[in-house]
Every structure is written in structure tokens, then in C-alpha cells.
Write a sequence for this structure.
């Protein structure tokens, strides 16, 4: 018995080595590797199909025989590792403008200026998006997929409290709604960041943008300071919401992201702060639960700004400087800017290209999702957008922004200390070579 | 005769040498040699991608003054203290009892071990749901009148302990399996003669069990210390090393991935290994002292 | 006296069962969630399923490509386990029994090696492996798995072999056995409990390993089972019913393997007693 077992083990191990050794693939020059951070099977399938169609068109037009090898699950950790080796994908996706900047300044990205010009990216993309495509004057990336911060609310509770979402426009009106919800025993605004610390920056992205977009831009660029009294006032406001329990019963950093979703979908909270990606958990809910959810822009918190939506780009497509096939790689990126490509993305619930999209493309989505996109599009048409922290702030400053705020709420540090540290980090990163890429708000 | 003997020892040593060295070399080539890169990286301002500029011991100097770092070490030590006590004690005691129970031993051992098999991602999610203040165990505690237990389990003040509890839930069954395999080496006759002399369970554990599995126990203590320095999975899944639960590994991960400070992350990684080395040396010295 | 003993036995059994409940309740909650819909888990994270149908399993099995993934995992885990087992027992034996001068060095080396984080060799190792064509290859991942499982298991084997009386192997040598014959005829049979334990540890460790497999294996057809759940993780959140189902599916083979080894283990318990 024992002998049999040992022999079997040895046999399996030996055959394992033999078979496994043959596992490596040889890649010829005609294969374009496209690496995306998407992990979900559906998202991968959609992209694989879109890139497959594009390569077929290219081959038909040019008499070539390229193949696309689409690889999912290539997040920044893996991309960073692969770009440090000689196993580089041809086309790949980075997370944010800050990532693009790091890659570009290390000379890892192909200059796409000529392709962008030929294919008219400037005319298709929103202005701010086109601004983001450039590093050091050259187009090096196709910003792709935008997401914005919005405010979700429970229609039933609104009705019960005699509130009308469209009439909650100012800080006073918003705080009034929060207070009414609390008095009626509801959690005024739901947010859970325990397992998802980035939920704190969702809210701060909105509040800082409302503090003044020009001021944020100047602060990041080192022309203004985070210790500005205006920021101080904003953090004070946020902390007062926390202290009063408006913000998740004062438990925003104790609750997990799932807790926040549970509470909101169980009619325990009036508002829930989350971005345009929220349909990922709204759409699977029962129809009745979905129907009671509404969406609006977060009201402005001062007179300087009108309601608008802090924006981020969902990803930045780039081409490796080492690619053997720059033409076809660039062709693939330009192809993503077609209107019909957006249908597949929308159906799958993925981010869409940062460009004007025909309204008809949103039809047929779940009502709350369609409503969301029309609000988002309307806001963009009005030229209103803000800066999300994860897309536009220097990386260390950004991490401190959402980690440090919890220490402020916990009263481990003062607001002044918090802002001073942000300013210190921002200065340090600018001195260390961080290049801000904030499109102008005007 | 003597010559023959030393010839034999020499031959034995040769066999031993050529048996052990490949194992060592294999590990060295795949794990340690590449890690030297990290030692170099720790002396640079590497951003994780391209060129690295040599900056000497700048990263280490920054480490020494980084309040986050000191906080993280403190948390790692708290973690270590918890893991040195609870899972080991629990694994030993339950292992001892279980090895003397006839009925249901197989099934019980399997159930105790099961949590070790599930991935941290799933276990973290389930426990986070248990900790949910609106639906979780708190509701059960409150309805049982145990309000004092209905805490915000993941609040910064006790996030580390809560996460450690989950990790220990997953971990102690693993120790149980190891302890039980060591317990089997003990000659049952020893217990029998102790029983004849009227020894109780505590005496049996103290005078028979513990001395017999000393090697294993010391090894587990060492492993617990070293792995407490590097623990990552459960903390990351449940709190991302947020306030109150920042540890060295989460700090390393954030620096490498979110802050573009791979050089700094390298210095943390080197520090982790140095700390383990230090623990190992102290442990070895103490052990030697105790044995002498 | 007997009455007291019975009480004692019931108390013991009661406590042992309570511990079993604590250990399994979260797992049962996870298994329950595999029978629920995503929407209902998002609303209530823990709950009793309204029905027990296996639609989630069927979907996860197909979408995740688990048939293929299990094949890969079995290949990888078995190969790594076999090699680590052999290497740890042999190295463990010599670390106890030989007079090698480098013995303490090797011991210390593996002790410190326990602490090396994946991060410290991941990037450079990826670089070398991509040069050697070992990226995207099961052979490559097997090599890494063997290496990273050596320190713990060599040391564990050593502590166990330490407990085997020296006289036994000396007697074998005097009887004319060569060193390896001694290992095979004396040490191996007496080490049954530790053989199963090491096999179990390495098997579980390699089966569940995520970071390295996820980095070094990119082709879907080469992926191991533990990396498959990411197919249900979206950019911002996951399909929870699928995540739980994938987790349980991934876990099942280890549970099966554990139960199979369990009998072997008990067998070792009776025949493995020494002296």
C-alpha cells in the first residue's frame, strides 16, 4: 500500500514536471498582448470581443495576420512587476494619471501623438480628458472610462420626511435633510470605509472640490496651501457631520463597505454616498429594492461652487515603448472611441469613454442606471466637474488624506495638524518630481 | 578500528553534505538571491518601475522617525503576544484532550482544522458580516441581554484584536494537527505508569507531555514569532491596515503599491527579515541558556 | 467516582463540541450563501437559503473553468508536495543525525528564511523567470512552491526526527544499512504522522496560494483553482454569491484530501508508536 502510494506520488510528480515544462508559450511578433486590470469574467469577455473585432478589421484592411491575446486580471501590482522585466505587454491599462506620469517619465510609454492627431482624439474626447492624455506635451495615453461621485437616496424615506431631492441644493437644505432623517431614526448618510478606506476619499473628493476647484488645483500644484482656511472650514464641516452622527452614525470608519450597502438597501439610511459604479450592487437587488433608490448630485457646500461631480478616469490605456507593433496597437486604442463600443460597455455595467455619448445609448438600462447617466451627462455638458483624489492628487498625499482623516475624526490629531501634514507631503512629492496633471475647470 | 570509524564518519558527512546542500541551494537561488535585490532597493529611491537612484541609508533614517512605523511595530508585537499565548495554548490543550478521547476524535479534529483550509478572503467576509452592527452578533448579544458584548468590533480601539481573533480561529487548528502528530511520539506507557502513581492531568501534561514535545513546541514558538512579523492576509482583507491595525506588511504593501515608494517598502522588507533574525538569535541564546 | 467520571466525560465532550461549533459555524454560513442570490446576500450578508439548488455551483464551475483549474492545481500541488516531503525528511534527518559543521548554519538559515516576505523576491524573481521562459509555466510555479515551502517543513521534519530514538538508526547502521537505507527502513516508517502532516501542510499551502500564482500564471488555461475567484470580482465590488461559491468549490478537494489522509493518519497513530 505504502509502496503504491509512494510510486504514485513519484509518478505524478515526474509527469507533472514533464507536462508542466511544456506549458510555456512561444509568442511570435504577430501577437498583440492586451493586458487589462479587469478581473470579472463578463468584463473580460466584453473587452476580448471588442479587441477581437478591431483586430479583424485591421487585418482585413491591411492584409495582415495579427492576433490579439487579451489578458485580464493585470492590475497595477502585476503590471509594475512585468514592466520591470522583459515580459512586457504591448497594450495595457494603468489606473490613474499619476501612474501614467510615473511610467512616462521612466520612458516606458510609446508616444501616441501622431496617432492621436490622425484619429482626431482631440475632437472626440472631452477637453479635460484630452488634457489628461498628455505627459510632457506628448500624447501618451488614452484616458478611458470615467466615473463620478454622486449621492444615492432612498425615495421612500424622502417621501416620508416630506423632502424633495430636487430641492436639496444648498448646504442648509442638505443639513436640514440630514437632521430630519436623524430625528426620524434613520442614518442620515451612509458610508463604510473599514475594509475599503477609499470610501473616505469619496466624500472628501466632493467636499474639497466644492471648497474651490481652482484652490484644489493650486494646492496640488504647490501654488496654494492645504492649510488654507477654506480647507480647514471644510474639514470642520465633515467632522461636525461625523460628530452629530449624520455620517453613518459616527461609524463611517467602523462599518465595512458591505455594512453600508446592507443598511442602505434595508431602508435604514436616507443617503448613501458612492460613485457611478454603484450599479454593481444596485442592479442585482430585487426590482422593488432597486426602484426605491434615486440618484442626485451632492449639493454644494458654499457659494463659490455650484453642484457638480468630482470626476475620475477609470483607467488609462497605454502602449509599451517596447512594442514591436506600434501602428496596430494605436489602432486598437482609437477603436475604443467608437459610439458602438459603448453599448457593450454600458450593458456590462462598465465605465464608458470620456466623450459625448448619444443619449439613445443609455436606453434599455435599468431605470436608476439610465437616470444616473443622464444626470452625469448633464453635469458634464454644463462643464461642471471636480477632482477626485485618486485620479489627481500626488500619491502619498492622497493616501494620507484618507487615512489621516480617520485620526481627525477620532480626535487623535487636530485639523490643523492634518492639513499641515498634507501640505508637507504635497510639497515633498512635488520636490520629488511629481508632475500634477489637473485639467483646468474653465 | 578507530580509523575505520572516522572513515565512516567522513563518508557519512559527505553523504549528509551532498544531501543537505542541494535543498539549501535550491531555496537560496529562488528566494534569497533575488531578495538581495531588495536589499539594494532599500538603499535607493526606487518608485517600483524604472531607474533607482542610490540614496544611502535615507530610507532607514526615515523609518526610524516615521510614527506609522513605530505604531506598526507595536501592533506586530501585540499580534505576536496574542499568537504566542492563545493558539498555542489552545492547540496544546485541545490536542492533549483529543488524543485521549476515543469517540469522535477523527471528526472533531477535522472540524477544528477546517477553517485553516478556507481562503482569507472568504473568512474575512463572513466575519465582517458577523461583526456587522445592524445584523451581526451584536443583535444576538443584545437580544440575549449581553449588551456589554455588543461592541463596534472593528472600531480602531479593538480592530487589531478582532482581526487577530479571526486569524486565530483559522490558525489554531493547524497547530493542533502539528501538536497531535508530535503527541503520537509519546510512549503511552509513560502515561500509564504516571496514572498508577496517581498523577493528575496537569501533572501529566507538565511532566510527560511538555518535555516530550519540547522540540516541536520550541519550533512552533519560533515560527509564531517570525510569522507574526510578516502577517498580512487577514489584516488586509478585513481592515486594509486602517487606523488601529496598521502592521509592517500592510505598510509595506501600501508604500510599494499606492505611494510609489518601492525603495521605502524594500527597507521595510529588509527590516522585517532583520527583526526575524534578531528574534531568532535571541531565541537561540535563551534556549541554549535554558538547556545548559 | 464513576458518576464523577461520567460527568467529566460529558463536560469534556460538551466543550469539544462547542469548539467544533465555533469552528464550523462561519463555514456553514459561507456554504449557505452559496445557495443564495447575489442581491439577497447584498441585502442580508448572513441568512438561511430559501432553497437548496445548485445553480450557483453550476455557473461558477463553468465560468471559472474549474475542471481545468483543478487539473492544474492537482498537478502543481502534488508535484510540490512530493518533492518538499522528500527533501524535508532527508534534510531533516541529516540536520539531526549528522555531524556536519554547517548544520547550525543551515538551521539558522531556514529559520530566518521563514520571515522573507513574498514582496522581497517577487519582482526580481519574475525578471529571472521571464528570461528563463518559466513565466506562464506550471513548471515554474512548481519550482517556486517547492522553494518557499522548504524552510518550514525542513524544520518541522527535523523536530520530529529529533524525537525518534537515536539507537534505532544506529542499530540499523551497525546491521549494515547504508544511510539512505536507514532513512527508508527506519525513519520513514516511524515518521508516518509527520509525513501526513507535512503532506497536508504543503498541499494546503500550495493549493491556496494566490499572489505568486496570480502573478506568474497569466493564461486562463494555466491558472490554478485558488486564483479563479477573481473572475467574480468587479472593479468596485463582487458578485457575492459567486465569490462564496468559488471559495467553497476551491476548498472542497482539500477537505476531501484531508478526510482521505485522516484515515492514513489514524493508521499511523497505532502502528507508529515507538519502542
Amino acid at each position: 500500500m505504502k509502496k503504491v502510494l509512494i510510486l504514485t506520488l513519484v509518478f505524478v510528480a515526474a509527469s507533472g514536471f514533464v507536462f508542466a515544462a511544456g506549458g510555456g508559450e512561444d509568442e511570435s511578433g504577430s501577437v498583440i498582448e492586451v493586458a487589462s486590470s479587469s478581473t470579472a469574467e463578463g468584463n473580460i469577455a466584453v473587452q476580448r470581443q471588442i479587441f477581437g473585432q478591431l483586430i479583424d478589421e485591421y487585418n482585413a484592411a491591411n492584409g495582415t495576420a495579427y492576433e490579439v491575446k487579451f489578458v485580464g486580471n493585470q492590475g497595477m501590482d502585476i503590471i509594475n512587476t512585468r514592466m520591470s522585466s522583459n515580459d512586457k505587454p504591448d497594450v495595457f491599462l494603468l489606473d490613474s494619471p499619476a501612474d501614467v506620469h510615473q511610467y512616462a517619465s521612466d520612458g516606458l510609454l510609446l508616444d501616441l501623438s501622431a496617432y492621436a492627431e490622425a484619429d482626431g482624439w482631440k475632437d472626440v474626447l472631452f477637453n479635460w480628458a484630452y488634457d489628461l492624455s498628455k505627459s510632457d506635451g506628448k500624447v501618451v495615453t488614452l484616458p478611458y472610462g470615467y466615473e463620478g461621485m454622486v449621492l444615492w437616496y432612498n425615495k421612500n424615506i424622502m417621501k416620508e420626511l416630506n423632502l424633495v431631492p430636487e430641492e436639496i441644493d444648498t448646504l442648509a437644505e442638505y443639513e436640514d435633510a440630514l437632521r430630519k432623517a436623524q430625528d426620524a431614526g434613520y442614518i442620515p448618510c451612509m458610508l463604510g470605509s473599514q475594509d475599503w478606506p477609499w470610501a473616505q476619499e469619496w466624500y472628501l473628493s466632493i467636499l474639497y472640490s466644492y471648497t474651490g476647484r481652482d484652490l484644489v488645483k493650486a494646492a496640488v500644484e504647490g501654488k496654494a496651501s492645504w492649510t488654507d482656511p477654506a480647507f480647514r472650514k471644510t474639514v470642520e464641516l465633515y467632522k461636525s457631520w461625523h460628530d452629530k452622527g449624520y455620517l453613518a452614525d459616527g461609524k463611517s470608519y467602523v462599518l465595512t463597505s458591505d455594512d453600508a450597502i446592507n443598511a442602505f438597501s434595508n431602508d435604514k439610511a436616507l443617503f448613501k454616498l458612492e460613485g457611478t459604479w454603484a450599479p454593481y450592487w444596485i442592479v442585482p437587488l430585487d426590482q422593488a429594492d432597486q426602484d426605491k433608490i434615486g440618484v442626485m448630485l451632492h449639493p454644494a457646500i458654499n457659494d463659490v461652487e455650484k453642484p457638480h461631480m468630482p470626476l475620475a478616469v477609470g483607467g488609462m490605456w497605454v502602449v509599451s515603448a517596447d512594442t514591436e507593433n506600434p501602428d496596430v496597437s494605436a489602432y486598437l486604442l482609437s477603436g475604443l472611441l467608437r459610439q458602438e463600443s459603448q453599448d457593450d460597455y454600458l450593458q456590462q455595467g462598465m465605465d464608458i469613454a470620456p466623450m459625448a455619448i448619444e443619449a439613445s445609448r443609455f436606453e434599455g438600462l435599468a431605470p436608476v442606471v439610465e437616470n444616473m447617466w443622464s444626470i452625469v451627462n448633464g453635469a458634464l455638458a454644463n462643464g461642471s466637474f471636480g477632482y477626485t483624489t485618486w485620479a489627481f492628487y500626488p500619491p502619498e498625499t492622497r493616501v494620507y488624506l484618507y487615512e489621516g482623516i480617520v485620526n481627525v475624526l477620532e480626535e487623535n490629531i487636530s485639523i490643523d495638524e492634518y492639513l499641515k501634514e498634507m501640505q508637507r507631503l504635497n510639497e515633498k512629492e512635488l520636490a520629488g518630481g511629481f508632475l500634477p496633471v489637473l485639467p483646468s475647470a474653465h | 578500528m578507530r580509523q575505520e570509524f572516522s572513515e565512516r564518519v567522513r563518508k557519512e558527512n559527505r553523504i549528509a553534505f551532498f544531501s543537505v546542500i542541494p535543498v539549501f541551494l535550491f531555496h537560496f537561488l529562488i528566494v534569497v538571491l533575488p531578495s538581495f535585490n531588495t536589499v539594494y532597493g532599500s538603499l535607493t529611491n526606487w518608485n517600483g518601475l524604472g531607474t533607482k537612484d542610490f540614496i544611502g541609508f535615507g530610507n532607514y533614517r526615515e523609518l526610524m522617525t516615521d510614527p506609522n512605523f513605530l505604531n506598526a511595530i507595536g501592533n506586530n508585537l501585540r499580534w505576536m503576544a496574542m499568537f504566542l499565548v492563545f493558539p498555542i495554548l489552545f492547540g496544546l490543550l485541545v490536542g492533549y484532550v483529543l488524543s485521549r478521547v476515543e469517540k469522535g476524535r477523527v471528526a472533531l479534529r477535522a472540524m477544528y482544522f477546517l477553517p485553516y483550509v478556507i481562503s482569507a478572503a472568504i473568512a474575512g467576509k463572513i466575519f465582517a458580516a458577523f461583526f456587522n452592527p445592524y445584523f451581526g452578533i451584536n443583535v444576538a448579544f443584545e437580544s440575549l441581554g449581553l449588551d456589554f458584548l455588543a461592541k463596534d468590533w472593528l472600531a480602531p480601539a479593538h480592530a487589531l484584536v478582532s482581526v487577530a481573533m479571526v486569524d486565530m480561529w483559522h490558525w489554531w487548528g493547524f497547530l493542533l494537527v502539528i501538536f497531535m502528530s508530535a503527541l503520537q511520539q509519546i510512549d503511552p506507557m509513560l502515561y500509564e505508569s504516571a496514572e498508577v502513581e496517581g498523577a493528575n492531568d496537569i501533572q501529566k501534561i507538565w511532566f510527560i507531555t511538555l518535555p516530550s514535545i519540547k522540540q516541536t513546541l520550541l519550533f512552533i514558538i519560533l515560527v509564531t514569532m517570525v510569522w507574526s512579523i510578516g502577517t498580512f492576509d487577514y489584516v488586509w482583507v478585513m481592515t486594509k491596515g486602517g487606523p488601529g491595525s496598521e502592521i509592517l506588511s500592510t505598510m509595506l504593501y501600501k508604500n510599494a503599491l499606492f505611494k510609489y515608494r518601492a525603495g521605502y517598502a524594500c527597507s521595510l522588507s529588509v527590516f522585517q527579515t532583520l527583526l526575524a533574525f534578531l528574534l531568532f538569535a535571541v531565541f537561540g541564546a535563551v534556549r541554549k541558556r535554558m538547556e545548559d | 467516582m464513576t458518576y464523577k467520571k461520567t460527568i467529566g466525560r460529558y463536560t469534556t465532550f460538551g466543550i469539544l463540541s462547542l469548539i467544533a461549533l465555533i469552528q464550523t459555524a462561519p463555514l456553514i454560513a459561507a456554504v449557505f450563501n452559496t445557495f443564495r442570490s447575489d442581491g439577497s446576500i447584498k441585502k442580508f450578508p448572513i441568512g438561511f437559503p430559501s432553497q437548496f439548488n445548485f445553480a450557483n455551483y453550476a455557473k461558477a464551475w463553468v465560468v471559472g473553468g474549474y475542471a481545468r483549474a483543478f487539473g492544474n492545481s492537482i498537478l502543481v500541488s502534488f508535484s510540490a508536495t512530493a518533492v518538499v516531503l522528500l527533501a524535508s525528511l532527508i534534510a531533516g534527518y541529516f540536520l539531526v543525525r549528522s555531524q556536519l559543521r554547517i548544520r547550525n548554519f543551515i538551521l539558522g538559515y531556514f529559520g530566518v528564511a521563514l520571515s522573507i516576505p513574498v514582496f522581497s523576491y517577487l519582482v526580481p524573481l519574475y525578471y529571472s523567470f521571464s528570461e528563463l521562459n518559466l513565466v506562464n509555466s506550471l513548471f515554474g510555479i512548481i519550482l517556486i512552491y517547492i522553494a518557499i515551502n522548504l524552510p518550514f517543513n525542513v524544520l518541522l521534519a527535523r523536530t520530529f526526527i529529533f524525537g525518534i530514538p537515536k539507537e534505532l538508526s544506529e542499530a540499523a547502521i551497525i546491521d549494515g544499512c547504508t544511510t539512505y537505507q536507514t532513512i527508508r527502513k527506519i525513519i520513514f516508517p516511524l515518521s508516518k504522522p509527520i509525513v501526513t502532516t507535512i503532506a497536508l501542510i504543503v498541499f494546503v499551502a500550495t493549493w491556496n496560494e494566490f499572489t505568486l500564482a496570480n502573478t506568474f500564471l497569466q493564461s486562463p488555461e494555466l491558472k490554478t483553482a485558488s486564483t479563479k475567484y477573481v473572475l467574480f470580482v468587479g472593479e468596485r465590488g463582487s458578485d457575492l454569491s459567486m465569490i462564496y461559491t468559488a471559495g467553497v468549490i476551491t476548498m472542497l478537494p482539500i477537505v476531501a484530501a484531508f478526510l482521505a489522509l485522516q484515515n492514513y493518519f489514524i493508521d499511523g497513530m497505532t502502528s507508529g508508536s515507538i519502542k
Q: What stands out?
A: The CA atoms of residues 190 and 196 of chain B lie 10 Å apart. Residues 2-41 of chain B form the longest helix (40 residues).
